[in-house]
Specification:
Elements lengths: L2 H8 L8 E3 L1 E2 L3 E2 L4 E5 L6 E6 L3 H18 L4 H17 L1 H11 L4 H21 L6 E3 L6 E9 L2 E5 L7 H13 L2 E5 L5 H17 L7 E4 L3 H9 L5 E5 L2 H13 L3 E5 L4 E5 L5 H13 L9 E7 L3 H14 L18 H16 L3 E4 L18 E4 L8 H4 L6 E7 L2 H9 L8 H5 L13 E5 L3 H8 L8 E4 L11 E2 L10 E2 L8 E9 L15
Parallel strand pairs: 1-5, 8-9, 8-11, 9-10, 11-12, 13-14, 13-18, 14-17, 16-17, 18-19
Antiparallel strand pairs: 2-3, 2-10, 4-5, 6-7, 7-22, 15-16, 20-21
Helix pairs in contact: 2-8, 3-5, 3-6, 3-7, 4-5, 4-7, 5-6, 10-11
Bound molecules: 2-aminohexanedioic acid.
Organism: Marasmius crinis-equi
Protein name: aldehyde dehydrogenase (NAD(+))
InterPro entries: Ald_DH/histidinol_DH, Ald_DH_C, Ald_DH_CS_GLU, Ald_DH_N, Aldehyde_DH_dom, ALDH7A1-like
């Protein structure tokens, strides 16, 4: 292992030789298939992870269920105290974990650390929430009666997370689940097992110190079989899945068929709209970060850019200059802004989209090529790309299909209504079966309706944008890019992004079961609606 990698792993006590256990249910184990964690920057194998065998997955589920049976009785503010300790433990390892995210996922250091910060933030949020997960008292129509709406824990929550946010998205789910009194079982992306092992180790220490079962926050690394076991288990009332629309559809249907609950976060084909009155000194860097940040691999990344005719040429020229000046580099180096794509499959999706752009004679303003020279040829480095397709028919594949890569397609509009129509014109569900069935579908998210942003200083535009005829996405920003949401608001999208909500706002309400409880304090037993049933 290179010293670059071994330094990052050692700082988190991950073995730098031999095999690493990828299952935790109170004990570390793993006797299933070996999964390799590959560094996107250098191509080196960072670790060989022993994943969960089918039997180990079953045992881990069983242990998680048992852990839930005791954990649910811990008063919510006590659960908050556990989260406060998890928060502190994460914060103590913020830099180290951030570096591991950069090493294994490939995002740049400031974003790797930012992701750990997001986990810390949601822990803070959930500590407060642990004293505020209130039900309510409803007025009864019957004398001497009260009706309570009571939240109780749900049970085991399975969290299936994606490669692009290997720490934060689990954090959102863990923090709300734990505050609500649930136990979680985590199946991370098969390509980022080390991030999940490091996070689980940190949480396990806290649970141990508090004499709580480790399976309150269990981990099962593995592939499709492990995911299917969790999704199909009748002992898992809630499955929270982040990933492609293709797999999301399968998960959603499987969980619904057994009347389980599901939260889906399936990416987004997000747009930014720039009006002529916008403050360009904000809009240009905002679109730049939205489209190139994380090498275009956020669910919230800007993929479509709609420019008002009056400013389009100048805007594209300035944006192109920024694109041309960004340098690839080791994501662990402090001054790098462009890291690699996560894996080879992602690069081939980039290549495929560039080919498609060429075949439809789109104007490619910059990018369109991989970095083939050393040292970048060892990793998955691509040039961020701006293209202007000839067609502005949003049903055209180039607009209606989201490519999970740093490719930004631009179009020119004349009035805001048109741009909003384009923003909303992405299909409710993807109809392109060739995309959905492609083996690359894992990295071709086709989901629609997650994030959107409008750049303007005119309050009338803002009114339109936020109102009933405005953006139909789950995230509707003004003078702020499509990506980089804070944890305080609920996070999620509409249409084929899945409608679920995670993180802040009212998202916690999905992690509990609600009971309506009528209590009769009186000496009479009147029936509701005045029904008379006496002999
Ligand atoms: C994701 O890409 O799955 O809003 C999550 C953002 C981040 C989370 C993205 N806070 O870009």
């Amino acid at each position: 292992l290179s010293s670059r990698a071994s330094g990052v792993l050692s700082a988190l006590n991950i073995p730098t030789s031999g095999e690493v256990h990828g299952v935790y249910d109170g004990q570390w184990k793993g006797s299933g298939d070996i999964m390799e964690s590959v560094c996107p920057t250098t191509g080196e194998v960072l670790a060989r992870v022993k994943t969960a065998s089918p039997e180990e997955t079953e045992i881990a589920l069983e242990k998680t269920r048992e852990a839930y049976a005791s954990f649910r009785n811990l008063p919510a503010p006590r659960r908050g105290e556990i989260l406060r300790q998890i928060r502190t433990a994460l914060s103590d390892k913020r830099e180290e974990l951030g570096a591991l995210v950069s090493l294994e996922m490939g995002k740049i250091k400031t974003e790797g650390i930012g992701e750990v910060q997001e986990f810390i933030d949601i822990c803070d949020y959930a500590v407060g929430l642990s004293r505020m997960m209130n039900g309510r008292v409803v007025a009864s129509e019957r004398p001497g009666h009260s009706i309570l709406e009571v939240p109780n824990p749900l049970g085991v929550v399975a969290v299936l997370s994606a490669f692009n946010f290997p720490v934060a998205v689990y954090g959102w789910n863990l923090a709300l689940s734990l505050a609500a009194g649930n136990a979680t079982i985590w199946k991370p992306s098969p390509t980022t097992p080390l991030c999940s092992i490091a996070v689980t180790s940190i949480i396990a220490e806290v649970l141990k110190k508090n004499e709580l079962p480790g399976a309150v926050a269990g981990l099962v690394t593995g592939g499709k079989d492990v995911g299917e076991a969790l999704v199909n288990s009748h002992d898992v009332p809630l499955v929270s899945f982040t990933g492609s629309e293709r797999v999301g559809r399968i998960v959603g249907q499987a969980v619904a068929s057994r009347f389980g609950k599901v939260i889906l976060e399936l990416g987004g084909n997000n747009a930014s709209i720039v009006m002529p009155d916008a403050d360009m000194s904000l809009a240009i860097p905002g679109v730049f970060f939205g489209s190139v940040g994380t090498a275009g691999q956020r669910c919230t990344s800007t993929r479509r850019l709609f420019l008002h005719r009056d400013i389009a040429t100048g805007f594209l020229e300035k944006l192109r200059k920024l694109y041309m000046s960004i340098k690839p580099g080791d994501p662990l180096a402090a001054d790098t802004l462009l890291g690699p794509m996560h894996n080879k499959a992602a690069v081939s999706v980039y290549d495929g989209t560039v080919e498609h752009l060429q075949s439809i004679s789109a104007e490619v303003l910059c990018g369109g090529k991989k970095f083939n020279e050393a040292p970048f040829n060892a990793g998955n480095f691509v040039r961020p790309t701006i293209a202007v397709p000839r067609s502005v028919d949003m049903k055209d594949k180039i607009w209606s299909t989201e490519t999970f890569a740093p490719i930004l397609n631009a179009a020119v509009f004349d009035d805001l209504e048109q741009a909003i129509e384009w923003n909303n014109a992405v299909p409710q569900v993807s109809e392109d079966q060739s995309v959905l069935e492609s083996p690359k579908a894992e990295v071709v998210a086709t989901s629609q309706g997650l994030s959107s942003s409008l750049w303007t200083r005119d309050v009338r535009n803002i009114g339109k944008w936020l109102g009933p005829s405005g953006s139909d996405a789950g995230i509707v920003n003004v003078n702020a890019g499509t990506s980089g949401a804070e944890i305080g608001a609920s996070f999620g999208g509409n249409k084929s992004t899945g409608w679920g909500r995670e993180s802040g706002g009212d998202a916690w309400k999905q992690y509990v079961r609600w009971s309506a409880c009528t209590i009769n304090f009186s000496d009479e037993a009147p029936l509701a609606q005045g029904v008379n049933f006496s002999l």
